[in-house]
Amino acid sequence: WVDVGTNAVAAYERTYNEETLLALHNLTGKPVEVEIAHEGMDVLTEENIAGGRLTLAPFQYHWLLYRSPK
User: Fold this and answer.
1) ∠28-30-33 over CA atoms, to 5°?
2) Contact 31/58 with Cβ under 8 angstroms?
3) How far apart, in whole angstroms, are the C-alpha atoms of residue 51 and residue 37?
4) Which among 22, 34, 59, 70 is placed 20 to 30 Å from 7, CA to CA?
5) How far apart are the first and last CA of the chain?
6) This prediction's pTM
7) pLDDT, tens digit, for every residue of 26-61?
């Protein structure tokens, strides 16, 4: 599990070789702001998501893929 600053979002990482997938799931019916450490690409939408503060809409999720730091 990954700490993103709120318990309203389930956040976890999976790493394989040099790539990490960060899964973010807003479990509430309200917008929630989270803090993420890395920029990544959402593998479901191919949208680039900047690191830093990110607001998730109600029940929104992102699966962010990024290169693992060495």
Assistant:
1) 95
2) yes
3) 5
4) 70
5) 20
6) 0.88
7) 999 999 999 998 899 999 999 999 999 999 999 999
Cβ 8 vs Cβ 32: under 8 Å: yes
Strand bridging mode 40-42 / 48-49: antiparallel
Structure-token pair, residue 43? 């593998």
3-state per-residue secondary structure call for the chain: CCCCCCCCEEEEEEEECCEEEEEEEECCCCCEEEEECCCEEECCCCCEECCEEEEECCCCEEEEEEECCC
Q: Which two tokens stand for residue 58?
A: 């109600």
Place of tokens 């929630």: 32
**Which residues lie closer than 8 Å to 17 by C-beta, 6 or more apart?**
none
Place of tokens 């893929």: 65
Residue 69: pLDDT band by 50, 70, 90 thresholds?
A: low
